[in-house]
TrEMBL record:
Keywords, in A-Z order: Acyltransferase, Transferase
UniProt-listed Pfam families: ketoacyl-synt, Ketoacyl-synt_C
Name assigned to this protein: 3-oxoacyl-[acyl-carrier-protein] synthase 2
NCBIfam families: PRK07314.1
Origin: domain of life: Bacteria
Keyword Acyltransferase in annotation: yes
Annotated family: Belongs to the thiolase-like superfamily. Beta-ketoacyl-ACP synthases family.
PANTHER family (alphabetical): BETA KETOACYL-ACYL CARRIER PROTEIN SYNTHASE, POLYKETIDE SYNTHASE-RELATED
SMART domains: PKS_KS
PROSITE patterns membership: KS3_1, KS3_2
Length: 400
């Protein structure tokens, strides 16, 4: 392991398929779709969502947790899981050598909704003094640092649906430049509100029948919430405490389309640059890649453009999967959740299926895993994330 290839020593998952790693992996592996009619969205043109089941974790029973926005609660639960798997005790570490990097697109929208309702109904004096600390987009990062006693760099990234992967890349660089020994990376989002759903509906991004990535009949994504966390460590630090790495983050790159605020470049130029640059950063050839965790949003444009990128970069046609058919689109959390799933896929020699894929679009020209999960031993995998604003971020992960 090089200094630029930190070890992944723990992962945590809180998703619509379950509130821990095992239940999430089981749901994704079984191709279980979690989209369901949402009473809170009743009356809107699209009323489907993918919500996290009832969440309970010891970290959320501590004093002050009840005032946290849901996005911060999801983040804390995911990070606590990852730390537990990594065997790290915040009471024992040097917090000045621990960084926190979070990714998210929206901040505490549920807190914002509540504050707006109070302002409209009862006046400014009834807006909670906890409004700002629940709403601001950096508060997931701040709450993680506060709860676990980290005093190293604490940074919040927001690159729309690429945020979670952007956070991974930034954390990798903090370790590579010697600013920390450990980085807690978390992508978290809880943005299932009537306003957000109305907004996504207005631009034609949402499906009213379910997400079907790479399917002939795909018509959009289902909005979702969730969090994914990864513990990254300097290889020497992990070795010194006899930690068992789950995977290595060997490459990362980002690019910007500078084409349109919500539509990807029609030829996928920015996305392709990011994929090729991430492979070059990792020092691997396209043919070395065993599988791809695609962004795969199930929108007409995104899937076709991403498939074109994959055809050009990976002519050997490695297996491709998208978790969004099962979990919905968790927006700014998606990159971290999908990186964690990619770690599990490498460790278990298995590529999960793309849930909802009934009739693969023959024009894609890629090998999308459909039906049952596929046994597949690979050493290296790529995880793609592309976001509104033309943000592209790509991570390359390798078996430990």
């Amino acid at each position: 392991m090089s200094r630029r290839s930190p070890a992944v020593t723990g992962i945590g998952l809180v998703t619509p398929a379950g509130c821990d790693r095992e239940s999430t992996w089981s749901g994704v592996l079984g191709g279980r779709r979690t989209a369901a009619p949402d009473p809170a969205l009743e009356g809107l043109p699209v009323a489907l969502s993918c919500r996290v089941p009832e969440l309970d974790h010891p970290v959320l029973r501590r004093r002050g947790s009840g005032r946290l926005d849901r996005v911060d609660r999801l983040a804390l639960a995911a990070v606590a899981q990852a730390l537990d798997q990594a065997g790290l005790d915040p009471e024992q570490w040097d917090g000045s050598r621990v960084a926190v990097v979070t990714g998210g697109g929206m901040g505490g929208l549920l807190t914002q909704d509540q504050a707006l309702a109070r302002l409209a109904d009862r006046g400014p004096e009834f807006v909670s003094p906890y409004f700002l600390t629940g709403y601001l987009i950096n508060m997931a990062c701040a709450n993680i640092a506060l709860r676990f006693g980290t005093t190293g760099p604490a940074l919040s990234t927001s690159t729309a649906c690429a945020s979670g992967t952007t956070a991974l890349g930034l954390a990798r660089d903090l370790i590579a430049t010697g600013q920390c020994d450990i980085a807690l990376v978390c992508g978290a989002e809880s943005a299932i509100t009537r306003l957000m759903v109305a907004g996504f509906t207005q631009i034609g991004a949402l499906s009213g029948t379910g997400s079907r990535p790479f399917d002939t009949t795909r018509d959009g994504f289902v909005i979702a919430e969730g969090a994914g966390a990864l513990v990254l460590e300097r290889p020497e630090h992990a070795a010194a405490r006899a930690a068992r790495p789950l995977a290595r983050l060997i490459g990362y790159a980002a690019s910007t389309d500078a084409h349109h605020l919500v539509a990807p470049h029609p030829e996928g130029r920015g996305a392709e640059r990011a994929v090729r640059a991430a492979l070059a950063d990792a020092g691997v050839a396209p043919g070395d890649v065993g599988h791809v965790n695609a962004h795969g949003t199930a929108t007409r444009q995104n899937d076709a453009i991403e498939a074109g990128v994959l055809r050009r970069v990976f002519p050997h046609r490695p297996p491709v999967t998208s978790a969004k058919g099962a979990l919905g689109h968790t927006l700014g959390a998606a990159g971290a959740i999908e990186a964690a799933l990619t770690v599990l896929a490498l460790a278990k020699d298995t590529v999960p299926p793309t849930a909802g894929l009934g009739e693969p679009d023959s024009g894609m020209g890629i090998d999308v895993v459909a039906g049952p999960a596929r046994a597949h031993a690979g050493e290296i995998a790529v995880s793609n994330s592309f976001g509104f604003g033309g943000h592209n971020a790509v991570a390359v992960l390798a078996r430990a």
